[in-house]
Amino acid sequence: MPVDSPCTKLFCAHTGDLVLAGLPDDLHFVLALHEGSAIGMATGQAIATGQPALAGYPFWRRRVAPSARPGR
Predict the structure, then answer these.
(1) What domain count does the chain have?
(2) Which range marks the domain in which residue 39 is found?
(3) Structure pTM?
(4) Which GO terms describe its molecular function (predicted)?
């Protein structure tokens, strides 16, 4: 993140040691109970401050058993 970024908080629903280890001192980590809550808090901060906000959202490819796939 650029040094002159207006973002001061990172809203996440997971701690992720790699994320926390690399945070700059002026960026505060806010732990949420769920990804939806993290997105909601970041949205609320962006609306309240008029500045961009950061939300961490884990994404992965869900693996589905072959028998559960449609058309099989």
Answers:
(1) 1
(2) 9-57
(3) 0.67
(4) magnesium ion binding
